[in-house]
Amino acid sequence: MKVIILGADGYLGWPLSLRLLRRGHQVVGVDNLATRRAVEEVGSDSALPIPSPKERERAARELGEFKFVFGDVTDYKFVRELLRKENPDAVVHFAEQRSAPYSMRDVEHAVYTMHNNLEGTLNLIYAVKEVKSDIHIVKMGTMGEYGTPNFDIPESAFVEVEINGRRDRIPTPKFAGSWYHWTKVYDTYNMLFANKVWGLTFTDIMQGPVYGTRTEEITGERFFTRFDFDEVWGTVVNRYCVEAVLGLPLTPYGKGGQTRGFLSLEDSVEALRILIENPPKQGEYRHVNQFVELRSVREIATFVQEAARELGLDVKVEHVPNPRVEAEEHYYNPELKVLPSLGFRPKKVMREEVKVMIKDLLPFKERMARYSSAVMPRTRWK
Ligand code: NAD
Ligand code: USQ
After folding, report:
1. Nearest ligand to the C-alpha of residue 261?
2. Pick the catalytic residue: 142, 201, 213, 251?
3. Of 136, 167, 316, 325, whose CB count within 10 A is highest?
4. Are 8 and 17 in contact, with CB atoms under 8 Å apart?
């Protein structure tokens, strides 16, 4: 299969490129390096050193047929000509601004996030329609589209409702918690519409937060993927592991009952591989929930604390005032059926994987220490 990965320089895009190459697929990786610049903008850097795109291209070619293309998905002509030239079977779309705090900094960052994410997805939709309408669009959304409703979260694009005695199907209710998360909701609605009007084929993935330093292909520094830990770009499990290495207290926000559907980088990449190799029927919009373990951020802090202790590190947990507006104790019960039905079986358990992560990060302690002032939360929702 020939697969274009938009956002191939990112945390998920790079290891997915490697996985697909190892499976014998041809990969064209596209990126405008926006995340590298935006992490620098907030005074931080990846904890693990990452090679330049040219070096990455060389490393990827050890595994298979890979090409890196520099480009911006908000440029319609670029996206259209890329599809014309490469004629792919599938396009994986990761190329979005993916940080909730970054989107909440101020009006410029909110507008940039809306513009970057909504325009990129709309350009892809139109380019597929114009160039080759049977391309499978694999779009990365987020579990955060649903918010934390006080009912079970169905794994479907539509639900049946009854209002004043009349029944109809409506898009599954969503209530996101940042401008970033809202862009994923709007993308979903735009894809549902493109599917209805033009019959385009989509897999829209609601993925929870990913953690981890490794996949099977990450066997040395030249294959490292980025690993962010600052208050804007770092996600909670990855941040805790760096905090443990730096000897900083772990930072659950507020009461710490915030519960999400987490999964390891290895499991994320494998789930994506399965979804790409098993496309939906032509003209279908497939809606997938992608997570492995439901955990609260309070519970995760104890996992990381225990793992650190086993490695001889004495780490404290200090709940800090929550910079976000979100429920700190809530019901959370999302459905998970599509991935298991396709044969997905998770390989990693968070409790064990955080120990591997701390071990992987320890050699880079000095490098991370340079950015330790970027760890404590500063970006507030209000
Ligand atoms: P990332 O920021 O590391 O990767 C995204 C890549 O897209 C970056 O390399 C960035 O430079 C590129 N990009 C952004 N805008 C672009 C544009 N206009 N043109 C070209 N390239 C552009 O993020 P990630 O963690 O790898 O996430 C990948 C996708 O998965 C994102 O869409 C994110 O919202 C989603 N997601 C991530 C997680 C997670 O925990 N990391 C969880 C759920 C969903
Ligand atoms: N949190 C802490 N302490 C920290 C950092 C975060 O308690 O030090 C809490 C947050 O308040 C939140 C939860 O942990 O309740 C998750 O926050 P996060 O920063 O790990 O993840 P989030 O902002 O939700 O975003 C990440 C990715 C995003 C993806 C999303 C999946 O950056 O791209 O869409 O996870 S989900 O959370 O399911 O929406």
Report:
1. 2
2. 142
3. 136
4. yes
What is the position in ligand 2's atom list of the atom closest to the CA of 208?
Answer: 38
Task: Express each pLDDT in 194-241 by its tens digit.
Answer: 999 999 999 999 999 999 999 999 999 999 999 999 999 999 999 999
Q: Which residues contact 364 (CB under 8 A, 6 or more apart)?
A: 47, 48, 49
Q: Which residues line ligand 1 (CB under 6 A)?
A: 7, 9-13, 31-35, 72-74, 94-98, 116, 120, 140, 142, 207, 209-210, 226, 235
The answer to whether 21 touches 15, Cβ cutoff 8 Å, is: no
Ligand nearest to the CA of 324: 2
Yes or no: say if 249 and 318 are a contact pair by the CB < 8 Å rule.
yes
Strands 136-140 and 158-163, sheet pairing? unpaired
pTM, rounded to two decimals: 0.98
Q: According to the 3-state scheme, what is the secondary structure of 336-368?
A: CCHHHHCCCCCCCCHHHHHHHHHHHHHHHHHHH
- For each of the domains in the chain, give its residue range(s) and CATH number, in order of start: 2-374 (3.40.50.720)
> What per-residue string of b and e applies to 155-170 under the rule 16 or more CB within 10 Å gives b?
bebeeeeeeeeeeeee
CB-based contact 156:110 (threshold 8 Å): no
In three-state secondary structure terms, 124 is: helix
DSSP string across 180-242: HHHHHHHHHHHHHHHHHHH--EEEEEEE--EE-S--TT--SGGG------STTT--HHHHHHH
